[in-house]
Automatic annotation (TrEMBL):
One of its GO terms (cellular component) is plasma membrane. The chain crosses the membrane at residues 29-48, 60-84, 104-125, 131-155, 167-186, 192-211, 232-249, 261-279, 286-309, 315-334. The lineage of its organism: Bacteria, Bacillati, Actinomycetota, Actinomycetes, Propionibacteriales. It comes from the Bacteria. Signal peptide: none annotated. Residues 11-20 have a biased composition (Low complexity). InterPro entries: YdcZ (IPR006750). The keyword Nucleotide-binding does not apply. This is EamA-like transporter family protein. The keyword Membrane applies. Residues 1-20 are annotated as: Disordered. It comes from Desertihabitans brevis. Keywords: Membrane, Transmembrane, Transmembrane helix.
Length: 340
């Protein structure tokens, strides 16, 4: 006799699961702009959270508070949506029932901690590195780790072996990161240990983002994008509150809340790229999503620095941006021609 399933409990299987193998070519083509937008949202959020941290004060506590404001505001908006949108509320309750029933591994709900680390790194590192260098370092960590996430089957689409097109795109992203680092060195008096350590923050954040996308994609199979996004913001906000408390052990000060309204929009952009990513990763896989998002990230980052801090840009910055785009388009072309 089959076991009865509660109507709010997400099913571990579906009749036609959406994966890169089952998604149509038309669907993949139509969703490319959404992946580019994800990358653009990441760059804009990096600018906002970096500026917010600078306006809040100095030291770790300013970056931590900026991250709490960004994640916390997103959590408030998502909570209102889940309460008002009954299907999302039912699926959220079903998600936690699925965890208790063993359909959803508990560790998959912790992806929000990686998102929290990324948002915290924005407040801590963007001011020193500039948006362009921050994003390219983020891209390097994201691209390399995405290869591993797909290769080991940590995402919703199962194992996807490392191939020449995938390696091509990831390697060019890393080369672009190195060139951007050299550009900062040429425009500064010296490359200090502090600069290197700061650049490591977005590198590690990018690695965590690829793992987060894989985890979120698997959760979304059971619960859909909105409950998955809400859970991310809940877990991330909790982690950031702990980080904020610990940050008061380090030097720094808070001077008050900045008056510019746009500095409080980081949560909206976070909602946009996390919710979109939970859908796109099921259609394209972690690496392909990451490569297209790279294009959106780097182009938006260069435009932002061109407007906000043109002194941060130099010849190698443009070469680095070009290489990331060549990596994305080249990887897609090689795949389309059947190169493995």
């Amino acid at each position: 006799m089959s076991r009865a399933v509660h109507p709010d409990t997400p099913s571990p299987t579906s009749t036609t699961p959406l994966t890169p193998a089952t998604a149509s070519t038309r669907l993949k083509a139509l969703t490319v702009p959404a992946m580019l937008a994800i990358g653009g949202f990441v760059s804009v959020q990096s600018l906002i959270n970096g500026q917010l941290a600078a306006g809040l004060g100095t030291g770790l506590r300013a970056g931590a508070l900026a991250a709490v404001i960004s994640f916390g505001s997103g959590l408030v908006l998502l909570t209102a949506w889940v309460l008002l949108h009954r299907p999302s509320g039912r699926r959220l309750r079903g998600l936690y029932r699925g965890v208790r029933a063993g359909h959803v591994p508990l560790q998959l709900l912790l992806g929000g901690l990686f998102g929290a680390a990324f948002v915290a790194s924005q407040g801590l590192a963007t001011g020193l590195l500039g948006v362009a260098l921050f994003i390219v370092c983020f891209v390097a960590g994201q691209s390399v780790t995405a290869l591993l996430v797909d290769h080991f089957g940590w995402g919703p689409s199962g194992r996807t072996a490392i191939s020449l097109p995938r390696l091509f795109g990831a390697v060019l992203a890393v080369v672009a990161a190195v060139l951007s680092g050299v550009q900062v060195g040429l425009s500064s008096t010296s490359v200090t240990p502090a600069l290197v350590l700061t650049a490591a923050l977005p590198l590690l954040a990018g690695a965590g983002t690829s793992i987060q996308q894989g985890m979120n994609g698997r959760v979304a199979v059971h619960a859909g994008p909105w409950p998955t996004t809400w859970n991310n913001f809940l877990v991330g906000t909790a982690g950031l509150l702990v980080f904020l408390a610990l940050s008061f052990l380090a030097p720094g000060e808070l001077v008050g809340l900045p008056g510019q309204w746009w500095l409080y929009l980081g949560g909206l952009f976070g909602i946009a790229f996390i919710s979109l990513s939970t859908v796109m990763v099921r259609i394209h896989g972690v690496l392909v999503l990451g490569l297209w998002a790279v294009a959106g990230q780097v182009v938006a980052a260069v435009v932002i620095d061109l407007v906000v801090a043109p002194e941060e840009l130099g010849p190698l910055s443009w070469v680095a941006a070009g290489l990331t785009l060549v990596g994305v388009l080249g990887a897609m072309t090689l795949r389309a021609r059947g190169v493995r």
